[in-house]
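Lesson 9: reading folded outputs for more than one chain in a single document. The general rule is that every protein is listed as its sequence immediately followed by its structure tokens, and records are never interleaved. Here is the first one.
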Amino acid sequence: MTRGMVLGKFMPPHAGHLYLCEFAKNWVDDLTIVVGTLAAEPIPGELRHRWMRELFPADTVVHLTDENPQDPSEHPDFWSIWQTSLERILPERPDLVFASEPYGAKLAEVLGAEFVPVDLPRATIPVSGTAIRTDPIRHWEFIPRCVRPHFVRRVSIIGPESTGKTTLARTLADTFGTVWVPEWARTVLEHRNGSLDDLNWPNLVHGQIASEEALARNADRVLFCDTEPLLTTVWAESLLGACPPEVTAAAAGRTYDLTLLTEPDVPWVADQVRYLPGESEVFLDRCRTALTRAGRTAVPLRGDWTARTEQAVGHVRALLQQTNCPVP
């Protein structure tokens, strides 16, 4: 049996890493991928380890968390330190070490293995982890699907009932060639024929988050969210008088690159799951209060449907231009 090893930071995993690991998989019978991380690095090591396990479920993916020096100039015993760490964590000594960096030759030597260079000039897959961290939007095509939620630009749309949030989310997604996240609570409430009796409020926010994270994998650079957990806290306060702590905690952990706040200056349309006719201005004030409490700002959208859509498109274009993203 031929055993191979790939060592990397995978910060984040990208198409070049996939090529390297898949190259190795097609050479050896047994591949071990070592994800080496430091506590101070900008993308958590546990997250990178999870990504690589998802990307290579049939291979052995191990997480090396030793705070080792990162360059031979940093310590006179650099190579022996790495040899000790790797020999401790590897299930078996590798026969082949695959790498897209010149250091792979010395690493293979200290492990008693053969070095196999893979795309050293980065000509086959012209990208690096540094390039993606610096400008993920420009290098989107090189980011694996499971990694994209970490970098996608998220736009949330909140506001009172019957102010066009769903239509706007769908229109923006079509305009920018991406996907949008529907309001999951609507699905639940329609199934319950609009009943609020014994409603599981934490489930509403967990379902919204689950839907957002699942659809973020399909997004092209930007994701539009018809509502978000912060708006669920406003609904809970409006209908219950107070928000369950679990819902508040979930909302506090969510971040968005842009929040659009739809104002109630369009005609009200009643339906089965609208609950506060005549209270749109009060609800709008509660949204503003929740945003302030969370230390967030929002862009107000006013006017008829055409006007607010044009305003929203302009703000999203500005957001993407800030990140050097090609704007449709």
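And here is the second record, again sequence then tokens.
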Amino acid sequence: MSDFQLTRTLDEHTADSALREDVLNGLTRSPKVLPPKWFYDARGSDLFDEITRLPEYYPTRAEREILLARAAEIAAVSGARTLVELGSGSSDKTRHLLEAMPALDTYVPVDVSASALEGAAQILQEEYPGLRVRALVADFTQPLRLPRAPGPRLVVFLGGTIGNLLPAERAAFLASVRAMLSPGDALLMGTDLVKDESVLVAAYDDAQGVTAEFNRNVLAVINRELGADFRTEDFDHVAVWNRAQEWIEMRLRARSELVVKVRALDLLVPFEEGEEILTEVSAKFRQDGVRKELAAAGLELTRWWTDTGGRFALSLSVADGGSGWAGRPGSGVEGAGTEAGSPEVIAA
């Protein structure tokens, strides 16, 4: 018998208002900017799935390698009875954790797409008939009120999505996660790591042009939803490495001088030749930087796993100064972390 509940904190009107606000604010400022969340309509989601299979795009494979190698250890160390996934999408990668958690009571996927949550829940409940699914339609960058479920809870934030947030946004997000955690709870987070510039740029500018099409798709979304007349062929996809900030920037560059009309906003948007729209920032991290950002939010880094190539990391952290966590030093759990501030570094 299905045990599925879906709670909505967002509806289509919320999304429409947010899109209008982001387009109006982003295209009337200098330099122009659009948030990356608007990539992901049905077409954009399909394109991103295609990107994850490209030879240049390593993060998905690297993270999966860690999950396959360490899922049992993550399950044992966290002792979780409830798994909360932020930005769950299709919940594909989550299966590696679910398979390692036979005693798991409740799965709480959080996503902006109700259809994605419902589709994933149907599949998961066929595969794990005893699992309770308490889905939440919500924006994970905003404070969340989680459904009641047994602890300990493991909050997971995979895919390196933390890198799409600017430093101030990351600080606010991590503080909101800290507010969710009770004694015994933990955060599992994926972070892409700093590496050779050529490898990074290639991951966001593949030879087949799939990422370019994905980037331009945000213009198609604005055309459809707000009656704009962007011609996607008028813009080049650009991916550059910002050495000072240690992040990739994806941009759309106007090939010529032009004017775009956004009918729903009664807005004319002029572009000079070569003018760009910043569509995504994807920060890359170092272990010490991750530790400091977590600590600033009141979280203590206790575990750090990488893939064998050292390209990607999964970190486990707990409320700073918390007690009762299964994986804290001296707990008797095999593979428990080392002293505070000196997490065990393990390659998958």
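What the second record shows: The two ends are 37 Å apart (CA to CA).
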